Amino acid sequence: MTVTYENYQRLRFDRPHPRVLRITMDNGRMNTADAVMHGELVRIWRDIDADDSVSCAILTGAGKTFSAGGDFEMVRAISEDFETRTRVWREARDIVYNLINCRKPVVSAMRGVAVGAGLVCGILADVSIATKDCRITDGHTRLGVAAGDHAAIIWPLLCGMAKAKYYLLTCDLLQGEEAERIGLISLAVEDPELDGKAVEVASRLAEGAQGAIRWTKYALNNWLRMAGPSFDASLAMEFMGFSGPEVKEGLSSHLEKRKPSFPTGSEV
Fold first, then answer.
1. Side-chain half-sphere of 33: how many Cα atoms within 13 Å?
2. What pLDDT score does 150 carry?
3. Which residues does UniProt assign to the signal peptide (predicted)?
4. pLDDT for 139-171, tens place per residue?
């Protein structure tokens, strides 16, 4: 089956190779994941899986930014409305599992800033490539919610528990060069090389033995499937946190560009 991609609003598509589909996140606001993009990042992996004309996909961001994280209006809606919270929780779960279960290999090409739902897909890509100065951070605890999205399912496996805990608890920024050094991403390259390197890797995968590549991806991703209960728990605790007091201060401090002042104690 050949899939048409004309109904997407926040994702653009082109073919740098006949069997490679390049997906570009683009919303004109540093590619933040608003409600529309968040939903599209759920279904794109199912479409790619079903599209017989695609053997490999590339995910990147428009302009100089991969993705600047979650749209603050969506964050506010999650914290204030139960139905929005449950819908986005389901989408956040499905982004991860749909990408893991997509048969086709995915290459990410990250530059500028990589945060939030974009980072989820960037890190979960089968081959993750970033510029050496790309700024990578998981900002959940700075926002006042648990590091859910994707971190628990893959960060400890990629970079070890000690590094995963440090960066997820502190929200310290990682540059691409350091992310490669600790094993969080596959490759770090100079900015002018990023797009060409992503196309080179994707083209090699698209021209390779498709059955062997897909079965290898499936087998390796069983490590991630085994971590599913940890991921499910982290995601549940993240979205439980959206109903609490810490996220309100986290969001306000982001909007006011100041250091947050969280409550000193917690019943958690």
1. 24
2. 95
3. none
4. 999 999 999 989 999 999 999 999 999 999 999
Q: Which helix (H) or strand (E) holds 68?
A: strand 67-68
User: What is the CB neighbour count within 10 angstroms for residue 170?
Assistant: 12
Residues 118, 114: Cα–Cα separation, whole Å: 7
Q: Which domains does the chain have, with CATH numbers?
A: 1-191+209-262 (3.90.226.10)
Place of tokens 């992996």: 45
Six token digits for residue 221: 């991703």
Looking at the whole model, is its pTM more than 0.90? yes
The Cα–Cα gap between 47 and 141 comes to 33
CB 134 within 8 A of CB 258: no
Q: Is 267 helix (H, G, I), strand (E, B) or coil?
A: coil
For 177-223, write each residue's pLDDT tens digit: 999 999 999 999 999 999 999 999 999 999 999 999 999 999 999 99
Task: For residues 66 and 27, give the distance between their C-alpha atoms in angstroms, rounded to a whole number.
Answer: 11
